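Entry 14. Structure prediction run on the chain below.
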Amino acid sequence: MKEPWGQVKPWLYLASPGSVGRVRDLLPLSGLTFAAWMNGETMGDSDAVFEQFWHGFQLPEYFGWNFPALSDCLRDLRWLSADQYVLFIEKADQILRDEVEARSDFFGSLLRAGEKWGRLRGREDVERVKFLVVLECDEREVQGMREIITNAVDSAC
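Output returned:
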C-alpha cells in the first residue's frame, strides 16, 4: 500500500485528502511553537533522560535532576515563551532501557504535563493540545510501548 502522503522537496509534502486530517491533528495551531527533538537511544538511564530534557527544553538552573523536578518543570515552562509545545522522541522504546523501573516515573511526568496544559479549540472546532508528545518507535515495539505507557498512567492515577 502506498503512503497517502510523501515528500516532494525537503520543504514540500504532497498529501491526499484522507491523510490531511490525520496530519492536521498532529500539527500545532498557529502561533509560537516550541519543539524539542530527542532520541531514546541516548536516554538509557535517568541521568541521560534529565540531560536530554536539560538541553532540549532549556530547563532552568533550579531543575533538581529527578523525576518530580522534571514533572514540575514540564508543568511550568514559564522560561519558554510559546503558545504550544511539541516533544518528539525517536526510538522511544529505548527510553530508560537500563532502568525499566523508572519508566512509570518518566511517563507519569509526561502525563501530568499533558493534563496540566489541557486542550485548546482549533480549526473547525477540533480539539488540540497545548503540550504534544510524539513517541516514535519500531512498529514491532508499538504494543509493548502502549503497555508501558498504560501501566505508567495507571500508577500515576
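The mean pLDDT is 84.
Filed with the rest of this week's runs.
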